[in-house]
DNA sequence: ACAATATGCAACCTTTTGGTTGCCTGTCAA
DNA sequence: TTGACAGGCAACCAAAAGGTTGCATATTGT
């Protein structure tokens, strides 16, 4: 269970994993079996083991937390790191947003003269 | 030059590429040669071609825009998609942030009884 | 014109990633 | 206790990602 920024970005880089997060957001505390149902890779359904691996990656990135209850394992969304990316990483680019665009616009106009 | 969310997330998944974005944020409109200087992969310096590939990926994801001026190619940060991820993608998780945590906390307490 | 500079393109290589199959372990319910 | 159910583990595989070397092209300054 690392906490590095790179691990989080890499975890978010996969469509299936983002879909898993979405589904936990819709309904928190699902089991592997629940999440396994109807998770598809471009149309085709993927196996339980594949989903399990994705969940392990999300858990390692600290994006989901799990609780074992009996023979099932419940998965809970942990939105803290998503929030952190928004605050710390995206935030710093936010500051330069308008500035960057105006600079680019100026350069483009200079080129077209 | 696609505009898909997946392409953007995949582009952001690499540490070197995020560093390139950081450096364009610090100083916009740099050439490949500029960006090439001192870009390292865990200590070791990487070749111009590797940096070029990374820039191509960023450009394809629409995170950088380029202008050719003579024999050099200037790279400009395009923060629009980063902003969009913050607004549309992170935003929807923001809503469920406190709720998710309280749910998880309740489950944990229930387990420890 | 010509050498140096700035970049592009393609082949190739290695590691990582996403996925599968097969089998094993633990838990619940009849 | 004995199936059936939920999940874990490990080996294996194909494709994608990251990087390199080598050569080609275009532009600039002298």
Structure overview:
The structure is a homodimer of 113-residue chains. Chain A is of the alpha+beta class and 113 residues long. Chain A folds into 2 domains: 1-78, Arc Repressor Mutant, subunit A; 79-113, no CATH class. Chain A has 6 helices and 5 strands, in the order H-H-E-H-E-E-H-E-E-H-H. A 3-stranded antiparallel sheet of chain A has the order 1-5-4. In chain A, strand 4 (64-69) and strand 5 (72-77) form a beta hairpin. The longest helix of chain A is centred in the C-terminal third of the chain and has 16 residues, at 80-95. The termini of chain A are far apart. Chains A and B meet through helix 1, helix 2, strand 4, strand 5 and helix 5 of A and helix 1, helix 2, strand 4, strand 5 and helix 5 of B. Chain B binds a DNA duplex (30 and 30 nucleotides) through helix 4.
């Amino acid at each position: 269970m690392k906490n590095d920024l790179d691990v989080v970005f890499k975890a978010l880089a996969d469509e299936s994993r983002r879909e898993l997060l979405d589904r936990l957001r819709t309904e928190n505390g699902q089991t592997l079996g629940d999440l396994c149902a109807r998770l598809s890779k471009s149309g085709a359904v993927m196996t339980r083991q594949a989903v399990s691996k994705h969940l392990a990656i999300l858990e390692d990135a600290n994006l989901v937390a799990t609780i074992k209850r009996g023979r099932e394992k419940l998965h809970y969304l942990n939105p803290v790191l998503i929030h952190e990316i928004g605050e710390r990483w995206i935030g710093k680019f936010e500051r330069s947003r308008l500035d960057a665009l105006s600079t680019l616009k100026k350069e483009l106009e200079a080129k077209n003269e």
